[in-house]
Amino acid sequence: MKATVKSGIKGFSGKLDGAIYYYHPRLKRTLMRRMPQMPVQAQNNLYREIARNIKALNPSEAYRGDFRAYLTQLRERDENIKLPSWYSLYVKMLWAMQAKYSQSVNLQTLSREQIIAQNLPCRSVRAAIEDGLLPQIPGWEYFDKQI
Fold first, then answer.
1. Predicted structure pTM score
2. Mean pLDDT, the chain, as a whole number?
């Protein structure tokens, strides 16, 4: 199903008739997707806790800026990169870190203090690239702002 807005309302967003409408600034379009119908399961609770914990890490503005600049350069190098925002790349990197260091990293309990104390690769974009969690791009050495 394709959503169209004939009157050209740029910022139309919200929920209506089982669909979610939102404006995507990079695509400069209003998009529509079906509202998810998820059954209540134990694994849904697990993912909800992980998502809340990741959000609670609250990275610094400089760290976010490094991720934004990195993602912009990554998109320029490879047009197949479809990540909508820096946060998507950040979450993807955290999941890759948990998969690589499954013995010491648990996204349910991860904290800023643990990241700094254990010197985890998610502390900066540069450290994540050096560890192989993110692909290298020219100038990656300058993305060294801490979480």
1. 0.71
2. 83
Euclidean distance between CA atoms 138 and 75, whole angstroms: 13
DSSP 65-112: HHHHHHHHHHHHH-TT----SHHHHHHHHHHHHHHHTTTT--TTT--H
pLDDT score at 1: 52
Whole-angstrom distance, CA of residue 7 vs CA of residue 29:
13
In a domain, 147, yes or no: no
More confident residue, 62 or 7: 62
> Does 68 lie in the same domain as 28?
no
Q: Report pLDDT for 9.
A: 57
**59 phi, psi to nearest 5 deg:** -65, 155
Could you tell me if 127 and 94 lie in one domain?
A: yes
70 neighbors 134 (Cβ within 8 angstroms):
yes
Q: Are residues 58 and 117 in the same domain?
A: yes
Same domain, residue pair 31 and 92? no
Name the band, by pLDDT with cuts 50, 70 and 90, for residue 138. confident
Cβ neighbours of residue 54 closer than 8 Å, sequence gap 6 or more? 90, 91, 94, 107, 110
